[in-house]
Predict the 3D structure of the following.
Amino acid sequence: MKKVFIDTHCHLNFKRFNKNRDQVIEDAHQKGVEICVVPGTDIASAQKAVEIATQNTNIYAAVGIHPHHTFGVTHAADTLQNEMQELAKLLIHPKVVAVGEVGLDKHAYDDTKYPNYQIDDVFLKTQKEYFIAQMDLAKHYKKALIIHNRETKKELLTILDAQWSEQMGFHTVFHCCEPDEALLEYAITHNVYIGVDGDVTYGGEKAAFVKKVPLSALVLETDSPFLLPEPLRAQKLYPNTPSTIPLIAQCIAELKGIAVEDVARATTENACRLFNIAIAPRG
């Protein structure tokens, strides 16, 4: 039986793919990756994700503003309202299946376009306001929610507890989930999916964590062009692309001691439920 995969998170809208995007999509299809979901990280990249999805039958878009890109927002309330209105315009598009990627982030990035980037109370307050506003959009438009969390578990779970609604169950994913028992417990009790990327192939905490995650809670993602899996990382065969999804699936299968076909089937079914999509025949 042919293995069918879904890459639930790949940034094909990034400039890195401007010269070979069509070939990257075709290469993924050749490896059995039948659907890719392309998330936005700001308004421009969200619009680009919708454009790519419109041009490709089995590509879908998510639209959202990454917490990193709320840095330096001045007159936050006015800016937030204007940007939520722009996202709302995109959310009515039939190829938009989620709000994302959105969330919270306290990591001190060295490589950033923002001068004087630093985590302080004002920045975190803005992140939280954007996250809650975008959760509200997901609930209003009945879209899935792609959550980015980096070093903010306590703040994230506090907001989720306060804002959670029944419709979010099976329609929320912890993107590239940190290997944390509290996040796993929350995911299991609230029917939140766990996104697994190429870093599972690096061993260590992430591999040990994924062994604990029920197959019914897993979805596959590459986070292309980032998180290149092994053995490609050792060979420095950058950038990462959706065609590496089978390597991630194979690693999960080996960690769990099951067939890769079982990983493919379960994660594809999970992704279809997460985004309320079906795999259409290729024309």
In short: Residues 121-140 form the longest helix (20 residues). The first strand starts at residue 5 and ends at 7.
